[in-house]
Design brief:
Belongs to the RecA family. RadA subfamily. By secondary structure, the protein is α/β, with parallel strands linked by helices. Helix content is about 25%, strand content about 25%. The protein has 3 domains: about 5-40; about 65-275, Rossmann fold, CATH 3.40.50; about 280-455, Ribosomal Protein S5, domain 2, CATH 3.30.230.10. The strands form 6 sheets. The protein has a 9-stranded mixed beta sheet with strand order 8-7-9-10-6-11-12-13-14, sandwiched between helices. It has a 4-stranded mixed beta sheet with strand order 15-16-18-17. The longest helix has 15 residues, at about 185-200.
């Protein structure tokens, strides 16, 4: 068979008949490397006759999922890992993905499942050191393989008949068949992932696979985008190394809902599930302890309603251009809300510095929090505290009118469960449901809310 020399980009996989300094597809420099292409190679014929099944006759298995026992991890996955599935987990460096994978391995092994933990980044002693620190008792059903050979991983899977395979990380492994392409090359990464998909979806011995993926500077999984299409579930862990809070989100899930959020706290003993985030993201105060600049709202994180505290600080500015700082929302959104508060609420802020944040670092991604943001700013500007057992759930339009938000009933139900006394929302949108403790105060405009909280004031 005739051999032909071609050149492949190590960043995007682009193929070129000649060498070039700059890849015409992705624009990266010095990424084209020589590769041999064999011409005249015939496609392999099908070894066996394909086995067809009628969709109506396929039965769902009750034991299809493996619950890891880590409540927030299982929640995001939709109830646990499916046996014949491939999941990829990514996060910034130091985000805790290896820690979470090792904890999942331990909790799964406790149930009698065989777990193979293959690492191409750490040695056996490094993994053992972390396990001693975060696991305490190490289960006998966990096997460690410190190697970068995917061939060795596949052989180890068959040797121990693993039920769960964890790879840390997929970009560090290579198949001998595709030498001289190095580990991390798009071709190697895709072929290694394809081999794991075939291994996981074996009809006789279905297995669950959890791959850890490296994250690039654009906060995306390193390598070709096709890797995300290949796997069943994509999990993204948010949070830097110095942050205590970690958020886990499913951006793709063939066996559950996307957008589901799980919360963890990073401690010396590893990640701890935050099972009641409504308590984690607020500061509990009595009426005597109430402080100005604090307002409560309810956010939707996946299918769960979470009570969040918005804090604001309004102070005199000593510069011609007052500062507007927000760690939890877009700066443009903050500028818009301040304009609404000035024009529709009658509060002068043109000479004031305004800082907005949330307790616990929760992101304000929903417009349902806009009324709470405005009320926290107003409270700080007037130096008068809001009732600590009140919450605010509404969007605020440019006209100053309160707008309805989706999922209002579940948000109010969470406040009622937590024992709050009143929630302020838009007019004619509150569900006709009886609540045990909470009162629903409906207002039409921002001015009505201000008069309700501060009687006699605009």
């Amino acid at each position: 068979m005739k051999e032909k020399i071609i050149y492949e980009c190590s960043e995007c996989g682009y193929l070129s008949p000649k060498w070039m300094g700059k890849c015409p597809n992705c624009g990266e420099w010095n990424t084209l490397s020589e590769k041999k292409e064999i011409k005249g190679q015939k496609k392999a014929a099908l070894r066996d006759k394909p086995v067809l099944s009628r969709l109506a006759q396929i039965e769902n298995r009750e034991d299809a999922r493996i619950c890891t026992g880590i409540s927030e991890f299982d929640r995001v996955l939709g109830g646990g890992m499916v046996r014949d599935s491939v999941t990829i987990l990514t996060s910034p460096p130091g985000g805790g993905k290896s820690t979470l994978a090792l904890m999942a391995a331990c909790e799964t092994a406790k149930q009698g499942f065989r777990v193979l933990y293959a690492s191409g980044e750490e040695s056996e002693t490094q993994i053992k050191s972390r396990a001693d620190r975060i696991l305490g008792i190490i289960e006998e059903n966990i096997w460690i393989l410190a190697d970068t050979s995917m061939d060795a991983v596949l052989a180890a899977i068959e040797e121990i008949q693993a039920d769960l395979i964890i790879l840390d990380s997929i970009q560090t492994f290579a198949l001998a068949e595709y030498y001289p392409a190095r580990a991390g090359n798009p071709t190697q990464t895709m072929e290694c992932a394809s081999a794991l998909v075939q291994c996981a979806k074996n009809k006789k011995t279905p297995r669950a696979v959890l791959m850890i993926g490296q994250m690039n500077k654009n906060d995306e999984i390193a390598g070709l985008r096709a890797l995300e299409h290949l796997v069943d579930t994509v999990l993204v862990m948010e949070g830097e190394g110095a942050d205590e809070l970690r958020g886990l989100t499913a951006t793709k899930n063939r066996f559950g809902s996307t957008g589901e959020m799980g919360f963890f706290s990073m401690t010396e003993k590893g990640l701890v599930s935050i099972d009641n985030p409504s308590l984690y993201f607020i500061t509990k105060r009595s009426r005597e302890q109430a402080v100005s600049g604090s307002a409560l709202t309810v956010l939707r994180e996946g299918s769960r309603a979470v009570v969040a505290e918005v804090e604001s600080l309004v102070s005199r500015s000593f510069s011609p251009y007052p500062s507007r700082i927000s760690e939890s929302m877009k700066r443009e959104t903050l500028h818009t809300l301040l304009s609404i508060l000035e024009q529709r609420g009658g509060i002068q802020l043109h000479d004031k510095d305004v800082v907005v944040k949330t307790t616990g670092g929760l992101r304000l991604k929903e417009q349902a929090a806009n009324l709470a943001v405005l009320m926290s700013i107003l409270s700080s500007a007037k130096e008068k505290p809001l009732p600590p057992d009140w919450a605010f759930i509404a969007d605020v339009g440019l006209t100053g009118e309160l707008k309805k938000v989706p999922g209002l009933e579940s948000r109010i139900r969470e406040l009622d469960r937590m024992g709050y006394s009143c929630v302020v929302t838009a007019q004619n949108v509150a569900p006709s449901v009886e609540y045990a403790h909470i009162r629903v105060a409906e207002c039409r405009t921002l001015s009505e809310v201000i008069r309700l909280i501060f009687p006699g004031k605009r």
